[in-house]
Amino acid sequence: MIKVLFLSRMIPMSQKQFVTVPGLDRLPFLYHGFGKAGWKEQDFGTRAEWRDFKLLFLDQVHSEVVHVIRKIPKTNPRGDALVTDVPRVFLIIKTADCLPVFLVDENKRVIAAVHCGWKGTLRRVLEKVILKMRDGCGSDPRTLLAAFGPSIGGDCYEVGEDVHKSFAAAGFPGSLFRPLADRPGKYFFNLREANRSQFLQLGVQAKNIFSVDACTHCDSDYISFRRDRGRAGRMLSFIGMSR
Length: 243
Prior knowledge:
This protein is of the alpha+beta class. The protein has helices spanning 22-25, 118-122, 125-137, 161-169, 191-201, 225-228, and strands at 3-4, 18-19, 30-35, 54-56, 66-69, 81-84, 89-95, 99-105, 110-116, 145-148, 158-160, 177-179, 186-189, 209-211, 235-241.
């Protein structure tokens, strides 16, 4: 069920509950944030300017499925990316080591929120989002703004030979993987760079790609499934337009 949160009283909220990037902060019509471990769904109701924003979640399945939202659905879509030009709705991504990504077309007033795990990255979910924005919304990839949130870092994300071979077969550069000398068949994988490379190949300008360079596995302010396993919850990243 899609929720609308209304403000019943003012509750002090620290900006430290989520982080933003200056490249998107400059847009007066845009709200965004990459939630830390303490940022919860009910916290969206603590800001007066968000009181009538709808919250749109995904049923995330580590896919390349992209939904273009023209009208708010009654149930959460199944997939891993949302694109919309509808104002006053927060597109929300849940992560706990995976990479949350935002895209903004400030000229067309179109936004996207994407969940990028290794499976979605392998299936080039970001490429499919950009093509949806280009072909369905008239966006020019060269003018898009992009933001990467906190995710597990390239020095912590250990994967096996199956992942390594799958990315090689899909044409990704071998430089994304660093073999572990003491563990044959194991690699450290740079998830962030794998997705950044997709942006560059599709014409997104390097100067327009912003990043919160925090490793969720190393930084206890964030939630990490690799670190916390069954105790791990999920962090909420959000993006929406006021008009």
